[in-house]
Amino acid sequence: MSVYKQKNIERSARLSVAPMMDWTDRHCRFLHRQLSSRALLYTEMVTAPALVRGGALHLLEHSPAEAPVALQLGGSDPRELAQAAKLGEHAGYDEINLNVGCPSDRVQSGTFGAVLMKDPGLVAECCAAMREVVQVEVTVKCRIGVDEQDPEIVLPEFLARIGAAGVSRFTIHARKAWLRGLSPKENRDVPPLDYGLVHRMKEMFPSLHLSVNGGVETLAQAAEFLENGLDGVMLGRAAYHRPVDILASADRIVFGSDAPDKTAFAAVQAMLPYIEAHLSQGGRLHQITRHMLGLFAGQPGARAWRRTLSEGANRRGAGPELVEAALMQVAGAPAE
């Protein structure tokens, strides 16, 4: 990767949308790109075994219009991850990210995700193997620790070990993960947040690019983290459920763009040709519109927008005209 492109990706990482299973698919990412041209987007986690052993290369499908976009991989076998990373680079992804944060039972049984916080040596080996075969940047998304680990001890050791393997960019979910006793959903909410620890890590490792994740609900909160010295902020559910609140003014507020803020109405109009193309290839409307339900969150008519799409998008033959009808339910919709 050229230094210029790497710097651009690092700058885009000032604000990113988290990888979320069943949510951040290619249709979701295309929608988010209509709201921000600069934020870094992530795929759902794709397991290295699915790509390498299962040959599931369809999981890498995406549009160049989504860029900059990162592929998140799950796995713990260095050789297999290296092969998967190479496939991801060949598919056109701008970054390869290793998942060291997901606490689900399914992920643990595959010996990857948050359980890898217990084996930083293996994580370092995996990252080194990937870096050896790709030119795009290899990054890590992790927790501050798991189970009974002391994050004050574990996290700096983890960053130092993985940093020594050549990784310079980390996203830190500022909560522990409890691998037993809490569900994945509870692991997103129950363990207390420790933003202070993430700030201390930035002071301890000033050369690393550190982004914070977990509990960030507004763009103003994200901007405050950036002003206070962190290199990036990753938002998950807030960006998905309220994409306009988080992304529509991000280019101006986070990236200093002079362009006007994007609007939900403009995003819908931009999605119509995309929907037409998807339907012409045999796709279904709901596969796209399920990601569009939160576009007008908090605005008059939002409930009617959601209801029209939710009730109609699964029907046989549903197309762009349903989206246009839903749009007319929203106050302030432009006249035809």
Question: Would you write up a description of this structure?
Answer:
The structure is a single chain. The protein is an alpha/beta fold. It folds into two domains: 251 residues, Aldolase class I (TIM Barrel), CATH 3.20.20; 64 residues, Four Helix Bundle (Hemerythrin (Met), subunit A), CATH 1.20.120. The chain is built from 17 helices and nine strands. The protein is globular and about 55 Å long. The mean pLDDT is 94.
- The fourth-level CATH homologous superfamily of the largest domain is Aldolase class I
Domain count: the total is 2
The backbone outline, from C-alpha atoms, is globular
| DSSP helical segment count | 17
Instruction: Supply Rg.
Output: 20 Å
CATH topology of the largest domain: TIM Barrel
Distance between the termini: 46 Å
Run of helices and strands: HEHEEHEHEHHEHEHHEHEHHHHHHH
Q: Would you identify the regions where 5 or more consecutive residues have pLDDT less than 50?
A: none
For the sheet with most strands, the description reads: 8 strands, parallel, barrel
Can you give the mean pLDDT? 94
Strand order of the largest sheet: 1-2-4-5-6-7-8-9
Coarse structural class:
alpha/beta
Strand coverage percent:
5-15%
CATH architecture of the largest domain: Alpha-Beta Barrel
Helix content: 40-55%
Q: What is the top-level CATH class of the largest domain?
A: Alpha Beta
Query: Quick one: how many beta strands?
Result: 9
